[in-house]
Design brief:
Elements (H helix, E strand, L loop, with lengths): L22 E6 L3 E5 L4 E4 L4 H11 L3 H15 L4 H22 L3 H45 L2 H6 L5 H24 L11 H28 L4 E3 L2 E3 L15 H13 L3 H14 L18 H5 L9 H4 L47 H5 L4
Antiparallel strand pairs: 1-2, 2-3, 4-5
Helix pairs in contact: 2-3, 2-4, 3-4, 4-6, 4-7, 6-7, 6-8, 7-8
Length: about 375
């Protein structure tokens, strides 16, 4: 359709796309108009081509936020439920107010308002998703408890299959773990990160898996107790250990302790996985390497004395000749460390040079002894 004028934007009239106009929020001929159709909130820009181009360029940064908001509202606009349609109209009104501010050249304020609207929409979607999440978890827990109660009932044992006593205890622990998982979901539902109801399939899968993990965790922890591989201590009272059952025996631990084990395993969903991970890590961890210096064995035959110089800095050659310094000769008995320096040996008379044969002094005061040459 050809471009329409701002003055022509009226309720029940078609817009440029042929969609009937449902609501006109603002109209300022010939500059702009903000209106609503069945699909979204739209803008009719200025009648002048130059002004229209400038307005489109200025409002373009708001398009991504408007698209995100429309994607969160679309299902409500076409819903058969009046409450959802009214909710969509309420948010569309807020979007129209933000667009009006943007058309009045305050684009940053309009973007801030649209971002706030998007956040409110996400929170409202998540609020409804939390209700559905809790409902799915409760239905899954109820179904699991019904199945476990049916399998462990006296009628099932007599008419269908005689479930062993130990298997019945494990199913009892699994039922307690189911209740513990449901309690954990109810406690953490306010702080748990949940997707919006637009991704409800993922939320349903997560709720079902949490309940199943609690049931399996309760049974596994009870089995660990029965086998004696793990024990639980509460108020300095430990219970857990190997269980042997005859046909009609009542195995330990008692039923109340067993329910407590299953509930704890279901409530703390990371308890059993962490126990299994620690057990696997302990089995697969390599032996620790020997401490440094242990390879040389015991200190004997001068081995410690030979190892020490490797960690010490090289001595200064000028210090080797000082009497009583670090350059003293090593102990006897080690031919590899023989010192050939003669700095400490006494000089023979033939090796001495008289003062008369020395070069003349270049400074100082001459003494009579130096002139005669007898001052050795």
């Amino acid at each position: 359709m050809p471009k329409i004028l701002v003055e022509d934007v009226r309720v029940n009239q078609p817009d440029e796309n042929g969609q009937p106009i449902d609501t006109v929020y603002y109209r300022n001929p010939p500059l702009y108009a903000v209106y609503r159709t069945d699909d979204r909130v739209l803008i009719e820009f200025a009648d002048d081509i130059g002004q229209e181009k400038a307005q489109r360029t200025a409002m373009a940064p708001l398009a991504p936020l408007r698209g995100q908001i429309n994607s969160l509202i679309d299902g409500w606009r076409i819903s058969p439920k009046p409450k959802l349609r009214e909710r969509a109209c309420r948010y569309d009104r807020r979007v129209a107010d933000a667009l009006l501010i943007g058309l009045e050249t305050d684009i940053p304020a309009a973007a801030s308002l649209l971002a706030e609207i998007k956040d409110d929409l996400i929170e409202e979607r998540k609020s409804w998703a939390k209700v559905l999440y809790l409902a799915c978890g409760s239905l899954t827990a109820l179904a699991a408890l019904c199945v476990m109660g049916f399998v462990t009932s006296d009628w099932y044992r007599a008419a269908i299959y005689p479930v062993p006593a130990l298997a019945g205890l494990l199913l009892t622990a699994a039922g307690a773990g189911t209740v513990g998982a449901l309690f954990s979901i109810a406690q953490q539902i306010r702080s748990r990160s949940i997707l919006t109801d637009l991704q409800m399939r993922d939320n349903i899968a997560d709720a079902i898996l949490r309940v199943l993990v609690g049931a399996v965790g309760g049974a596994v922890l009870a089995a660990l107790m029965f086998s004696g591989l793990a024990s639980l201590s509460i108020n300095n009272s430990s219970f857990g250990g190997a269980v042997t059952c005859a046909k009609d025996c009542t195995p330990e631990p008692e039923t109340m302790k067993l329910l407590l084990i299953g509930f704890v395993a279901g409530f703390l969903e990371r308890l059993v996985p962490d126990l299994l991970a620690k057990a696997s890590l302990a089995e697969s961890s390599p032996p620790k390497p020997a401490a440094p210096g242990a390879e040389g064995g015991t200190k004997s035959d001068g081995g410690a004395a030979r190892a020490a110089p490797q960690s010490q800095p090289n001595p200064d050659p000028a210090d080797l000749g000082a009497p009583g310094g670090d350059g003293a000769a090593p102990e006897d008995g080690d031919p590899d460390d023989t010192d050939a320096c003669l700095c400490h040996a006494p000089a023979a008379d033939a090796e001495l040079t008289s003062d008369a044969n020395l070069p003349a002094a270049s400074g100082g005061v001459a003494t009579p002894t130096d002139q005669t040459g007898d001052g050795r």
